[in-house]
User: Fold HAD-IA family hydrolase from Streptomyces spirodelae.
Amino acid sequence: MTATCVILDIGGVLEITRETGWVRRWEERLGLPLGSVYERMRDVWRAGSVGSISEREVYEQVAVRLGLETSQADAFMADLWTEYLGTPNEELIAYVRGLQGRCRLGILSNSFVGARERETALYHFDELVEQIVYSHELGIEKPDLRAFEAACASLEVRPERCLFVDDVAANVEAAQAAGMQAHLFEDNAGTIRRIAAHLDAGP
Assistant:
C-alpha cells in the first residue's frame, strides 16, 4: 500500500480527441434542428456512460429515436466511435510505457459501453497499465469521489502516493479531495515533468 502510483485519464490525455462535427452533420442530413440528437439521446448517452444499458440497446435506441435504417444506424455509430476514440497521444503513451516497473500504473476514465473492447484493440491500454477503471463498468463517473477510491483500491495503493492526470479541472479537484495528488493535463511536456517530479519524490 506504500507504492508510488500514476493514474491517467484516457480522452484528452492518452487519446487526442478533437470534435469532428459528426453530430451536426447528422442533424443536417436528417433535417433536424441543432441540438436535436443530444435532446433525443440524452438519457441513452447517460446510461451508456454508467453501464446501465448494453451496447446493443444503445444501437436500437439510436435507430428508433432518430428514425434510422440499419445502414444509417451503422454509419451513425461508426461516426460516434471515430470521435470518441480520437488518435493516440504517442509521446505520452511511450513515456508511460517507460515507467513500467518503476511505479504502479492505472487508468481512470469516464467512458461509454463498448469502450474497453475498442480501446484494447486499437491502443492496447491493457498492456500499458496494470488496471483500467471504466465508468461504464464501475457505474460511477468522475468527479464522484468513489471513482477515485475505486481506482486506488484496484491498484492497492494509498491515495496520497498516487498522482492523477486529467484534462478536466473538476476531476483534478475531485482527485485532490479524495486525497490524491493531481495534475491538470495541458500538454505532454508539462505532464511528463510533473510525473517525473512525483516519482523522484517517491519513498
